[in-house]
Every structure is written in structure tokens, then in C-alpha cells.
């Protein structure tokens, strides 16, 4: 949960066209198709206590049509009856009649303090779905876009606190274990904020993994992490392998420490205090890199074996396991590399 390293964005000159003269305005009319629905979209209007710019950006300007990036001719929406409806949209054709693919088990109108229902397509066969009341559903959809094979099945659902919308989700496999990571967004009252808007933004990063116990396969929450900030992010997504977050925001986000994290940090701090001096030091100029390794006294040159390679280094004392072994950051001229013993250490 350490801070991300800064990166530099540079233009790729090979992609720039030096002969480009500019854009031209087209006056050709755009095709527009309309279709009547038998039930309205489940729109949720902002309440009296949702008056800030962040509420407007997060919930007031919400797009109720969800594009399936895995099947780009398909869009989905949730109607007032709690039905997830699928609609095929292709260019230069009339809109097809929406079809129901799933129905939320809860009555949306029965909850007063709710947000708009939201969904995100984690993969070609997995969907993360929120009913807007604070309950998260993980759904195995089958192959979407085909009525014969698209069968939405709930494999996980749990109440996760106050209402949220789903900002992003990914499906991945690690060590033969399938997991789905979901990023939840909330705008919550901040009693300690007396000079600002009185609210803060919460991003909850939930990882749900497949657990096998005595032949029974089910999905459970593997880890929950919470970040807090003061502005709704312009962009927030989970890294494809579930290893990190990518956030673009006007104001920074910070992880809130859980008790388990504090215990782990204390353990790490104790282990660090027990460690001795670093195994090696290094310095670098434009021409070379110098690595200094501390070795026990009374070690002779014959006891040391150093192996240089174009992209790695290995230092061994007598017949012991390597003192240092690993990949270099970049390639070196290994034939010009050398080593010496200084001050017998």
C-alpha cells in the first residue's frame, strides 16, 4: 500500500503525422433511433442532503446505460421493476426490443436511502452488480450477447454497509484461484470537516475469491481495503492483475489502516530493527556502477567467487549460498567488470 512511483508521459513521435492539417467539420446528420420501453429506467434523483459538487459528479450525472466492453454491440440498464435489460445497438439498424437477463431479488422502491443501481463487466463472463442499497452481487453471466447462453447466476451477494456505486472491477486468476476485485465509490458525511464541504470520498477495494472447502466451491471476501479522499476521482480503476489501483483525482487518496495492516506493519518494523547493516551499498556515475559488499573478516580472495553476466551478478563466499544474487536494472559490459577486497572486508 505504498505510494505509487512518479512517471513521465512523453509523446511518441512516430505516431504523429507531420502533414496533418487539421480537423474538418462534417455537416452530415447523425442517425437517431428511438424505442419505447415498457418500464422506465430506475433513475434516482439526488436527495436534499446530497447537495455538493461531488454528489452531482458521482450520482447526479450518472450514465444509466452500461456498455459491455466485451461485446460492444450490447448495452444494459436497470429499470424500475429491478430488471437488468439488454439492448443490442448496431449502426444503421433499428433498435431491437430490450430483453430481460436478470432480476434483482430486492424491491428497489422499498429503500428510501438508495443510490442508482450500477454494474461493471469484470470479464466476458463475470459481472459485478450493485442494487444501490449497499448490497454487492457477483454474477456469473455465461456468454453474454446470446440469449441461448446468457444465464445470469448469483455466486456471491453480501451487504457491505452504506450505499455505493461500482466504479470498476476486474476478473483474474492467480495460483489457480479465480478472484474478482471490485472498486466501490461512496460520498460520506465527514463530521470532522468543518471548513470544507462536510463530506469525504471513500473508495473501497474489495477482493472476492473462490474458496474450496471439502469439495464445496463458493466465493467469499478475501480482502477489503479502504481509501479516502476529498474529491470524486476523474478516473479510478483496478490494475488488470488485481495488484494495484490507478486513480486520477484533483485531490489525493490515502489508505485507511485496518487493524490487520497495523499488526503487519508492527511485525515488519520489529523484523527491520533486528536486521543488521545492509548487505551492500552502491553508487553510480555516467560510466560505471560501484557495489560495496561487506564480508566477514579473515576472508581471502580465494574464498570469494564473483560471477558477472550482462544483466545479473552473483557473489558467493566459499561453499555457502550466494551472498548477493539477482538481476541488474540494465545491461552492463560484463567483460570489463572487476572486483577487489578493500581493508580485508
TrEMBL record:
Gene3D superfamilies: 2.60.40.790. This is NudC domain-containing protein 1. PANTHER family: CHRONIC MYELOGENOUS LEUKEMIA TUMOR ANTIGEN 66, NUDC DOMAIN-CONTAINING PROTEIN 1. One of its GO terms (cellular component) is nucleus. It is found in: Cytoplasm; Nucleus. Keywords: Cytoplasm, Nucleus. Residues 275-345 form the CS domain. Its main location: cytoplasm. It holds the Pfam family CS.
Amino acid at each position: 500500500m505504498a505510494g505509487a512511483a512518479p512517471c513521465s508521459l512523453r509523446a511518441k513521435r512516430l505516431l504523429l503525422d507531420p502533414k496533418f492539417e487539421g480537423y474538418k467539420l462534417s455537416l452530415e446528420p447523425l442517425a437517431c433511433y428511438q424505442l419505447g420501453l415498457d418500464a422506465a429506467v430506475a433513475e434516482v434523483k439526488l436527495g436534499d442532503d446530497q447537495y455538493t459538487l461531488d454528489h452531482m459528479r458521482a450520482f447526479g450525472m450518472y450514465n444509466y446505460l452500461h456498455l459491455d466492453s466485451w461485446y460492444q454491440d450490447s448495452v444494459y440498464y436497470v429499470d424500475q421493476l429491478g430488471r437488468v435489460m439488454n439492448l443490442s445497438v448496431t449502426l444503421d439498424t433499428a433498435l431491437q426490443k430490450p430483453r430481460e437477463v436478470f432480476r434483482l431479488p430486492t424491491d428497489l422502491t422499498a429503500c428510501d436511502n438508495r443510490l442508482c443501481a450500477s454494474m461493471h463487466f469484470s470479464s466476458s463472463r463475470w459481472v459485478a452488480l450493485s442494487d444501490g442499497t449497499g448490497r454487492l452481487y457477483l454474477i456469473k453471466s455465461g456468454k453474454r450477447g446470446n440469449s441461448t447462453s446468457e444465464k445470469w447466476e448469483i455466486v456471491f451477494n453480501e451487504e457491505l454497509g452504506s450505499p455505493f456505486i461500482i466504479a470498476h472491477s476486474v476478473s483474474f486468476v492467480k495460483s489457480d484461484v479465480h478472484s474478482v476485485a471490485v472498486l466501490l465509490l461512496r460520498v460520506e458525511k465527514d463530521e470532522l470537516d468543518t471548513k470544507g464541504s462536510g463530506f469525504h470520498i471513500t473508495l473501497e477495494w474489495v477482493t472476492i475469491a473462490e474458496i474450496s472447502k471439502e469439495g464445496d466451491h463458493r466465493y467469499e471476501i478475501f480482502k477489503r481495503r479502504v481509501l479516502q479522499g476529498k474529491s470524486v476521482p476523474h478516473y479510478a480503476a483496478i490494475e488488470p492483475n488485481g495488484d494495484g489501483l490507478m486513480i486520477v483525482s484533483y485531490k489525493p487518496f490515502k489508505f485507511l489502516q485496518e487493524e490487520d495492516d497495523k499488526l503487519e506493519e508492527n511485525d515488519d518494523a520489529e523484523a527491520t530493527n533486528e536486521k543488521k547493516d545492509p548487505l551492500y551499498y552502491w553508487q553510480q556515475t555516467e560510466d560505471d556502477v560501484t557495489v560495496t559488499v561487506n564480508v566477514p573478516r579473515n576472508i581471502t580472495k580465494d574464498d570469494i567467487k564473483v560471477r558477472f553476466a550482462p544483466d545479473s551478478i552473483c557473489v558467493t563466499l566459499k561453499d555457502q549460498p550466494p551472498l548477493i544474487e539477482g538481476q541488474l536494472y540494465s545491461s552492463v559490459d560484463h567483460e570489463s567488470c572487476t572486483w577487489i577486497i578493500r581493508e580485508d572486508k
